[in-house]
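Notes from the 1:1 (GR / supervisor)

We went over the backlog. Supervisor wanted to see one worked example end to end before approving the batch request, so GR pasted a single chain during the call. The sequence is below; no edits were made to it. Supervisor asked that the structure be written out right there so they could see what the output format looks like.
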Amino acid sequence: MDEEKALTDHLGDLRKVIIYSSLFFIIFFAIFIIFIQQMIPIITKSQKLTMLGPLDVIRFYTGVAGSLSLGVSAPFIGFLLWRFIEPALTEKESKHAIKYIPAMLLSFLSGLAFGYFVVFPFSYQFLMGLGTANFEMMITTQSYFSFLLMTTIPMGFLFEVPFVLMFLTAIEIVTPNHLSSFRKYAYVVMAVISAIITPPDFVSQLIVLIPLFILYEIGIALSKFVFQSKERKNLQEEIQQV
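Structure output shown during the call:
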């Protein structure tokens, strides 16, 4: 009976998370739709884009509003999910999770900014220059927006790597030695990611790849800091017990 009650309460909490997250998303979606005309010049950067049909306008506007709404809602949804899974976490995991959420949010926004102001314009101009050398380029809004998302969203997640490594070190899943020994494999993975989200030229890939290498090294350094801090704290507790 107690297990059934606990399951019912758990499902009720999940239902609240879904409802509140949906409401938050819908509210921001409506706001972005209202002001979509003011945001389009910022997103398109005054590029001449082409619509292939009347429904493309709806797809583009809803795609822009949906993506922005999801981005703005992500911190709130993440907090609700953390509150939902908190009872299943240990006290240590819960304490560290709430501490690292703001830092991961800021790093995600930094990654988006890097993708929007550096990776996207460089990649876009390179590909446009490559195409106009032999063809008359006609860029649709859908292809433009898809390329914009492809060169910004992944950078947001990749910029979170240092703080993810710090969190995993704090809850004792990884150690700095593990990260150092895994370095060569991590570099290969990052090289593949860089090749996927950038044009097939050496310079564009370096623009993305070098920051990724630096981020991983920063993650190792921060992991060492957390690991050493935990060791000092454990040593002090042992001395106090003696």
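Supervisor's comment: The chain has a mean pLDDT of 82.
Batch request approved.
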